[in-house]
Amino acid sequence: MYVDSLTVMLLALAASSAMIAYFLVGTIRGKKDFADLAPAGFMLALFDFISGFYMSFFWPLPGPYNMLFGDPLLFLGMILLAGSFMLYKGFDIKILSMLGVFLGIYLFAETYGMVAFNLEKGVDFLPAFGLYLLSAIAAVASPLVYLDTKSKNGRTAYYLLAIMFILIAFIALFIGSAGIVAHLASPP
User: Fold this and answer.
1) Which of 33-37, 117-121, 163-167 tops mean pLDDT?
2) Is residue 174 part of a domain?
3) Domain housing 103
4) Does residue 1 carry a pLDDT above 50?
5) DSSP secondary structure letter of residue 142
6) pLDDT in the model for residue 151
7) Cβ distance 104 to 142 under 8 Å?
8) Which spans are transmembrane here (predicted)?
C-alpha cells in the first residue's frame, strides 16, 4: 500500500520554521535559555530527519522528486537534531548557520532545477517556487545570527530572518493543507 506522507512532512516543515522564528525573536528580546525548545525541537528534528531520509532513499516517486522534497528535509532534520541537542546542553547554536548556508545553496540548485526541468506546473508552481526560493534565501542569510542583537543592524537582521521563516511556515502550511484536501477528495 502506498502512503503519501508529503502533507504531514510539510506540516513538520511549517512547525520547524515557526520554531526557528520563535528562537530568533526570543533572541532579539534577550532570552538566553532556550532549553525549553529542546524537546519539541528534537521531536520535529527527528521527524524531519526520518521522513527526509525515507523519502530520499525509499519513496517510490520518480528520482527528481525524491531529491527535490526529501533531501532538504533530511538535511534540515540533521541541523535541527544538532540544534536541539546544543540547546539542551546550553551551547551556542550560531555555528549551525554555517550548515544552513550549504542547505541554502542546495535549495537554490533545486529552485533552479524546478524551473529548468518543469518539475512543478500549474497552480502548484508559484507556492512551491516561493517556498524553495525563500527557504534558500533564509538559509544562505542565516549567518546573520552572528550580528549583535543590541545593534540596530543586528536586530533588523534577526527580524528579517524571523519574517522569512514565518513566511516559509505559512507557505508550507498552505501547500500541505491544499494537499490534505486533495488527498481527502480522492482517496486511493
Assistant:
1) 163-167
2) yes
3) 6-185
4) no
5) G
6) 96
7) yes
8) 6-25, 37-59, 65-88, 95-117, 129-147, 159-185
